[in-house]
């Protein structure tokens, strides 16, 4: 040893256990921060990719550009890519279908959400890409590579060669207008009212600031809000601020927990040795030299712990993903599910790790350097005066006998140690609760999932009368065996009947049952009801009455908030299932999810079946058998109406109220079509062929084929879910390890003291009970504070998230209970290991150990 | 030649609402090369005096001059450096650094001063202390007597002006205690150092050149040792 600083390395080497415990603390924290950073960034990357896929990758565009504007933009220094889209001619086809050929230039193809299924995109003016579904309805029934003649400008036919097939779009199929694109040469494409320009700006440009400047060029500017919001570049500053606050809070929480864990590990290690630092002072070490020694230790520890933490953070995540894949979560798109490596996360975690260690070393170093040499010289024993605090209130631990009382005293004896241990547990629990809340909300906002996600095909039939005005009865349009046959095909998740019409009737809702927030926050208004016989003020709330077959009802069970959606229960007359949560526009232009009414299971609901005739109102009372959180099919929430789901028995009774109005041709109670849901990862091709066969052989058939999109949406949703669960899993594991490390460090550093207790006659059993009580109590205190802090932070995040979408605040009680239960169990079990070790170790040796 | 001058030294501790006068107006001089014993009952102020002489604690009043330097006129850091260079400490509980071996413990004051040890002198010292076969051992591998010898070596490593020993034989059996005192006397003879020993043991006091007797924080008498008188 040639320098006094060499002592730092000696300490670390000789005190191997303490060193390892401290390094474990650093490794865990750095692993946490780098894993969370990677997960968060991957989540964001994924969301951006998905949004670019759905809404295009352009930042903004102009709906009514001029050729001058195009010139300006194409020479603009800040513009990176500029794409052109021009609406073209429509060609009518058989069965009231049509195809519209629009021109897009090469940059436009990159910027717009145009997705090629097969072949390539057009690169010449006589080339065409069309949606798959329209291919066999085009004149001449062409194939990929064949030619087709379609309308051109001024009704001049143009011969196109089909070079590409596009993914089917639901909207175009429902409307019956297929999208088709040809190549638009930027040099000669006309820039006029039919043209739309799309653009992105060069990397590094402040987009949100520049949008205002670009809007001055032409007032028809529109923005790709979904993408810009995710990029933190929304034109709405409130959104950007809210995003910054949300991510600031999350990052702050993670950084805080990192610093806390490292501080905890380091602080205890230094405190326990403080007497030795005092001795060095008697030998003439200056306070600076003592600080230097502590900082040297910090350097060595972080040099080992930080890179190891980065390594474990990355590979731990990979391992967690691998485990989840093995656990059966493997999905088709798993190969695209990759963690994205970002240098800034690694560098940031590295820096935070080091800074945290130095910060954690700074206070103990100051303490060590200011320790009184007199106290150190006085002899053995800890020279850190433990601030024994008499408990004002008797601790509940006192009930557990002498061991409990000892535990209560131990916990409160050293305030600093108590605070850092508790803080460490609190932060672990808070982290879990807050991240659980945040990820669930993100999931809800980005993936409004219901059973519609699985629907790949929608078949419907409307048989037109023949020359003689005859047509078969509606009950024969869609034979039940078609549905049975399709349902039996491999990969089919479910087949659900669809009906030609829904009933829209007002429900007579007593005013006290209407959520007052509706009047407070939205512009929705309800007419007063004049039909109420019990003289209570009531309003007419428009309601959508939807008939569900048994298969749909079985799926609805997943969404039950209270009561039941069981088909058998609904087979009884006048039983309905209610969805009273709606998603209206608020006065502040945002959308919110709010309950419209406050019905409970068992309540009676009155439907006004003939609203047009107020003289002789026909009122029909139904009973709420169940309440759902959201709609299991179609849009998850209605904007303004109650949704009432009924079985066939109730539906028939409702129709019978006014047979003139609800005649069978308009309101059939038999299926006029069906939806086919595919299982995740299943091949839709056989089902497609089967349905196409039905369409071909049965006039009046219409098939909406969205299998491609459905698969992508579903994969995205499943991926998001996996992300969220891996995320929470990682936080849970790291949080638990953190608690284990904290409690074990606390205990291991008291070996001598526990030896002393044994020496004065405490049995190992009593010591075990004492330590167990300590572990449990730390868990209890940590849980209480963790929930309080978690609640506060969740509420804060909720307030920020409300800037994007109004949602009711729901504290994640389930997650909180899981977190607290885990903390208690971890607290309980983590004391057992060190105790077992102590049991085996020699008592005298422990007594001789340097305090 | 005076190496230590203590003038009107007093120290008062606050203990809750009461004040304890650990030292009251103590004054004396010590010459270079003297072997001085400080005796007195428990609580008489012996350790407090030693801490004041070593610059470990600040007096409430009075002065301590060592080698002509007013110890408490120095700043904290200067006093640490002064202590490192001019004062050697020996404690009853040895207080060795457990992670350093014998040789390194002895070197430590020099290393703190960023100086490389004078090998010949340290070797001589280690031989004199009878530790040459144990120079690579850790304190935990040594007997109490050996540990105290290492502490003496550490105190002498910098050839300080004075060596302060607080009950250096308190934890040792009589043979080892005897040996320690002989070594301290040797330091006085061989290296012409000033040694001040706090002790309860009148046999040790009897071997000193001078005995300072403290009682209730006051210097009761300052006598030439009996051994010397006889």
From TrEMBL, chain A:
Keyword Transmembrane among UniProt keywords: yes
Transmembrane residue ranges: 20-40, 242-266, 300-323, 343-363, 420-438, 722-743, 776-798, 813-831
Signal peptide span: none
Gene Ontology cellular component list: plasma membrane
Subcellular localization: Cell membrane
Domain MacB-like periplasmic core: 19-209
Keyword set, alphabetical order: Cell membrane, Membrane, Transmembrane, Transmembrane helix
Protein name per its UniProtKB record: ABC transporter permease
Gene source species: Cohnella terricola
TrEMBL record, chain B:
Record flagged with keyword Transport: yes
InterPro entries in UniProt: AAA+_ATPase, ABC_transporter-like_ATP-bd, ABC_transporter-like_CS, ABC_transpr_LolD-like, MacB-like_ATP-bd, P-loop_NTPase
Entry-linked Pfam families: ABC_tran
Gene Ontology terms: cellular component: membrane protein complex; plasma membrane
GO molecular function terms attached to this record: ATP binding; ATP hydrolysis activity; transmembrane transporter activity
UniProt keyword terms in alphabetical order: ATP-binding, Nucleotide-binding, Transport
Residue ranges of domain ABC transporter in the record: 4-230
Domain of life of the organism encoding this protein: Bacteria
Signal peptide (residue range): none
Name listed for the protein in its UniProt record: ABC transporter ATP-binding protein
Source organism of this protein record: Cohnella terricola
């Amino acid at each position: 040893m040639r320098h006094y600083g060499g002592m730092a390395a000696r300490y670390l080497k000789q005190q191997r256990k303490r060193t390892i415990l401290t390094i474990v603390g650093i490794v865990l924290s750095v692993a946490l921060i780098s894993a969370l950073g990677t997960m968060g960034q991957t989540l964001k990357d994924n969301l951006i990719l998905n949004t670019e896929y759905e809404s295009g990758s352009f930042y903004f565009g102009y709906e009514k550009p001029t050729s001058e504007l195009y010139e300006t933009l194409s020479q603009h220094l800040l513009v990176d890519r500029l794409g052109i889209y021009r609406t073209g001619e429509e060609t009518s086809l058989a069965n009231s279908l049509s195809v519209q050929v629009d021109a897009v230039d090469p940059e436009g193809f990159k910027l717009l959400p145009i997705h090629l299924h097969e072949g390539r995109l057009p690169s010449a003016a006589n080339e065409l890409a069309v949606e798959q579904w329209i291919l066999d309805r085009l004149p001449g029934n062409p194939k990929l590579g064949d030619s087709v003649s379609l309308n051109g400008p001024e009704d001049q036919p143009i011969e196109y060669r089909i070079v590409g097939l596009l993914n089917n779009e639901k909207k175009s199929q429902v409307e019956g207008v297929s999208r088709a694109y040809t190549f638009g040469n930027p040099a000669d494409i006309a820039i006029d009212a039919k043209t739309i320009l799309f653009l992105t700006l060069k990397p590094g440009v402040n987009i949100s600031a520049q949008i205002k400047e670009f809007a001055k060029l032409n007032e028809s500017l529109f923005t790709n809000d979904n993408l810009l919001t995710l990029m933190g570049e929304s034109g709405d500053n409130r959104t950007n601020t809210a995003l910054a606050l949300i991510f600031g809070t999350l990052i702050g929480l993670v950084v805080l927990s990192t610093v806390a864990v490292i501080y905890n590990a380091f602080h205890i290690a230094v405190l326990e040795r403080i007497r030795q630092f005092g001795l060095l002072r008697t030998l003439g070490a200056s306070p600076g030299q003592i600080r230097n020694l502590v900082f040297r230790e910090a350097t060595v520890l972080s040099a080992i712990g930080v890179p190891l933490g980065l390594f474990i953070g990355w590979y731990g995540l990979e391992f967690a993903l691998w485990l989840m894949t093995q656990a059966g979560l493997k999905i088709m798109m798993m190969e695209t599910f990759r963690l994205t490596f970002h240098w800034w996360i690694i560098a940031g975690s590295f820096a935070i790790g080091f800074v945290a260690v130095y910060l954690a070393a700074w206070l103990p170093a100051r303490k060590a350097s200011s320790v009184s040499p007199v106290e150190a010289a006085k002899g053995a024993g800890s020279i850190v005066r433990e601030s024994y605090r008499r408990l004002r209130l008797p601790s509940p631990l006192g009930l557990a006998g002498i061991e409990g009382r000892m535990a209560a005293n131990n916990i409160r004896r050293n305030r600093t140690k108590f605070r850092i241990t508790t803080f460490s547990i609190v932060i672990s629990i808070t982290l879990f609760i807050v991240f659980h809340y945040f990820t669930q909300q993100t999931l809800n906002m980005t993936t409004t999932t219901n059973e519609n996600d699985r629907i790949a095909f929608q078949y419907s039939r409307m048989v037109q009368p023949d020359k003689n005005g005859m047509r078969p009865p509606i009950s024969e349009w869609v034979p039940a065996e078609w549905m049975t046959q399709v349902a039996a095909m491999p990969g089919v998740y479910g087949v659900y009947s669809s009906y030609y019409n829904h009933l829209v009737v007002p429900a007579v809702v007593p005013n006290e049952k209407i959520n007052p927030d509706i009047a407070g926050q939205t512009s929705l208004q309800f007419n007063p009801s004049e039909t109420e016989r019990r003289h209570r003020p009531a309003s007419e709330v428009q309601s959508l009455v939807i008939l569900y077959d048994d298969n749909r009802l079985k799926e609805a069970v997943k969404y039950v908030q209270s009561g039941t959606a069981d088909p058998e229960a609904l087979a009884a007359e006048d039983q309905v299932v209610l969805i009273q949560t709606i998603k209206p526009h608020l006065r502040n232009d945002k959308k919110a999810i709010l309950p419209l009414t406050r019905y409970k299971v068992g309540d009676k609901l009155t439907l006004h079946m003939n609203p047009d005739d107020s003289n002789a109102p026909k009122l029909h009372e139904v009973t709420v058998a169940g309440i759902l959180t959201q709609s299991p099919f179609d849009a998850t929430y209605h904007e303004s109406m109650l949704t009432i789901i009924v079985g066939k028995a109730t539906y028939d009774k409702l129709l019978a109220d006014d047979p003139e109005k609800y005649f069978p041709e308009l309101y059939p109670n038999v299926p006029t079509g069906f939806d086919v849901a595919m299982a995740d990862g299943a091949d839709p091709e056989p089902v497609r062929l089967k349905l196409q066969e039905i369409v071909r052989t049965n006039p009046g058939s219409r098939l909406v084929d969205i299998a491609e999109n459905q698969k992508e949406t579903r994969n995205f949703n499943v991926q998001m879910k996996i992300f969220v669960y891996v995320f929470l899993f990682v936080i849970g594991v790291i949080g638990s390890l953190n608690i284990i490390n904290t409690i074990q460090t606390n205990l291991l550093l008291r070996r001598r003291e526990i030896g002393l207790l044994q020496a004065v006659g405490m049995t190992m059993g009593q010591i075990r009970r004492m330590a167990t009580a300590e572990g449990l109590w730390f868990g209890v205190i940590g849980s209480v504070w963790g929930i309080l802090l978690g609640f506060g932070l969740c509420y804060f995040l909720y307030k920020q998230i409300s800037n994007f979408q109004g949602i009711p605040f729901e504290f994640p009680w389930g997650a909180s209970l899981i977190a607290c239960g885990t903390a208690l169990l971890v607290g309980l079990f983590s004391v057992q290991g060190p105790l077992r070790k102590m049991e085996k170790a020699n008592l005298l040796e422990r007594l001789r150990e340097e305090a | 030649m005076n190496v230590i001058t203590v003038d009107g030294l007093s120290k008062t501790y606050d203990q809750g609402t009461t004040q304890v006068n650990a030292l009251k107006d103590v004054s004396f001089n010590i010459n270079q090369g003297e072997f001085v014993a400080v005796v007195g009952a428990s609580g008489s102020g012996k350790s407090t005096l030693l801490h004041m002489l070593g610059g470990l604690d600040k007096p409430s009043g009075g002065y301590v001059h060592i080698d002509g330097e007013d110890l408490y006129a120095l700043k904290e850091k200067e006093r640490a450096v002064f202590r490192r260079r001019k004062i050697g400490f020996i404690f009853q509980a040895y207080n060795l650094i457990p992670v350093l071996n014998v040789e390194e413990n002895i070197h430590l004051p020099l290393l703190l001063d960023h100086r490389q040890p004078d090998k010949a002198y340290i070797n001589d010292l280690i031989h004199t202390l009878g530790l040459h076969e144990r120079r690579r051992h850790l304190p935990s591998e040594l007997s109490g007597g050996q540990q105290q010898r290492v502490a003496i070596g550490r105190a002498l490593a910098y050839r300080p002006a004075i060596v302060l020993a607080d009950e250096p034989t308190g934890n040792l059996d009589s043979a080892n205690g005897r040996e320690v005192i002989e070594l301290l006397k040797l330091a006085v003879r061989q290296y012409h150092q000033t040694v001040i020993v706090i002790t309860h043991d009148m046999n040790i006091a009897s071997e000193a050149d001078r005995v300072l007797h403290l009682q209730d924080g006051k210097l009761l008498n300052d006598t030439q040792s009996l051994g010397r008188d006889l």
